[in-house]
Amino acid sequence: MALGLHKSEVKNPLLRWVDERLPVITMIQKEYGTFPTPRNFNYFWNFGALAMINLMIMIATGIFLAMHYQPNTLMAFDSVERIMRDVNYGWLIRYVHMNGASMFFIVVYIHIFRGLYYGSYKAPRELLWMLGVTIFLLMMATAFMGYVLPWGQMSLWGAVVITNLFSAFPVVGDFIVTLLWGGFSVDNPTLTRFFALHYLMPFMIVGVVFLHVAALHITGSNNPLGVEPKGPQDTIPFHPYYTIKDTVGIVVYLMVFAALVFFSPNYLGHPDNYIPANPLSTPAHIVPEWYFLPYYAILRAVPDKLGGVILMFSSILVWFAVPWLDSSKVRSMNFRPVARIFFLLWCISFGVLMYCGGKPAEEPFVTISRIATAYYFAYFLVVLPLLGRFERPMPLPESISRAVLGIKAMGGGPLPAGAAAKPMEKA
Amino acid sequence: MADMATQPSAPPAGAPQATKRDFLALSATAFAAVGVGAIVWPFISSMNPARDVLAMASTEVDLTPIATGMAVTVMWRGKPVFVRNRTAEEIATARAVPVSELRDPQTDQSRVQRDNWLVMVGVCTHLGCVPLGQRPTDVRGDYSGWFCPCHGSHYDGSGRIRKGPAPTNLAVPQYTFLTPTQIRIG
Fold it and tell me: What CA–CA distance (Å, rounded) separates A354 from B70?
């Protein structure tokens, strides 16, 4: 690209002046206006945009909560109660933030499900997928540290258990744990640094999200058929078609979110976290937040400390390798009848683990967790690598437009005027 | 939106007709504006004083230990309040000043509830420093009242601005005498 002013097509002289020097308007128009997008998205393709909205909601509410929160063990619990009772609309902002974490995980789990089912991780989107897994790991760390901040019983004991996980590692374990704590137990230094990191990490997420979206705009989106667009007849411009489709999804998402916030704001929380932290008394039954339960179940399924920790971390890290573990060339499981069954079983194993993670560590839940854990890993390490060699996929459609426009378009002649016309250019 | 709307229904050339699409665009924008306002308001409101802050918004002062000619400074809403038990001479001097001479014309009578008790917010009306003059050893300025060391504003014995950059007199807070020897500020 030659140096000099950008050749802007913006009409407004002031905006044009800016665009010639910093072509952000051209970029937005290219990436979100005319951006060619497969014409056959279903509503599963809303969840990336929803996750983005959710991240912004979390940052906005979080910044305002931080104006009132005190990261000190003597004041943290009371400052949260003050937010709930005395700060104007503090109850609303906190409940939105608190339930926003749950909504974020719901949205992101559906987003990940979409990726796994439709094979969105396959070439050329491997790095896009791995950036997504990185975002998920950052989200988990952020959510965990955020849950510690109210300094209730679950905050403290959750922090104790999770930080102690690192003590399982030989040689460096104790060093890492002391480093996390800043002392000899989870105490004031821990709370203060968790607050600092909890504030920092969302902005790291923003950075990785930017890379995630940038990578997406290089490869283009996958689609429910898993067949790459072959030409303009297979795509439509992002705006207005998918801006409006995302808007529909956002409205539904906000309705669910609002129902949670206004009618049962504590449904997904744990009542013990409204008891101030007491380092001398562990609650009878410690559970993490619902979105961590599957990994917690995996941890407890293993009768060995180090083994459990390794398996728990591996349950997410294995996602990084999925693009290379899956040997099938066919992306969408719509055309993989056998893979579909194995994937459904994997989803069930995930659900079972989530259920068992919330139950006490006793029979029959331990055995059930072990079976589910075994299948969770077998799906990635055995089923996906082998199935591509043995499964006979259903025939793939020739192109997106052929598949979605139906038989009429199969003749090879001119497509029906309305359907095949060049997508309306958006000014 | 506008040019999209004019494309299908543009037979009468010239001035663009108001179309159904224009109506939809305008009403959708209006609703969006209301929605944005409804979302933004709780956030802005949360930055206003919280209820526990408002609950701490009044201060009671016992006047018995303040001898004639002495002054105390109390905290009220995070700011200093000057309470001065003025001498008869100070009162007379303050009342002798012609009101027309003042930058912010106020009689001494309008600034006090009982002649000897002068109660004022001790914050210079220029840029918020605390003027000197409460302690007997302080510099009290050219008018024997208060002197702000930051930018040199001189206040007289009634707390009225006489010289320097401050635009108005030292503010008199709302206060009531609960008993002859006790006041509540706020």
Answer: 72
Three-class secondary structure assignment of A87-119: CCCHHHHHHHHHHHHHHHHHHHHHHHHHHHHCC
Tell me the pLDDT tens digit for each residue of A70-100.
999 999 999 999 999 999 999 999 999 999 9
Q: Is B154 labeled as catalytic in the residue annotation?
A: no
Answer yes or no: do A85 and B46 touch at CB < 8 A: no
Q: Collapsing DSSP states into helix, strand and coil, what is residue B73?
A: strand
Mean pLDDT, residues A215-229: 95
Q: Is domain A30-286 classified as CATH 1.20.810.10?
A: yes
CB-CB neighbors (< 8 A) of A58 in chain B: none
Tally of CB atoms within 10 A around B55: 10
Q: CA A350 to CA B14: how far, in whole Å?
A: 64
pLDDT digits (tens, 9 = 90+) for A123-174: 999 999 999 999 999 999 999 999 999 999 999 999 999 999 999 999 999 9
Mutating which of B36, B40, B43 best tests the A interface, going by the most A Cβ atoms within 10 A? B43
Q: Is the pTM of this model over 0.95?
A: no
Residues A215/A128, Cβ–Cβ less than 8 Å: yes
What is the topology classification, in CATH, of domain B53-185?
A: Rieske Iron-sulfur Protein (2.102.10)
pLDDT at A415: 44
**What CA–CA distance (Å, rounded) separates B48 from B32?**
25
Average pLDDT (B179-184) is 92
The ranges assigned to domains in chain B are 18-48, 53-185
Residue corresponding to tokens 């209006």: B30
- ipTM value, please give it: 0.81
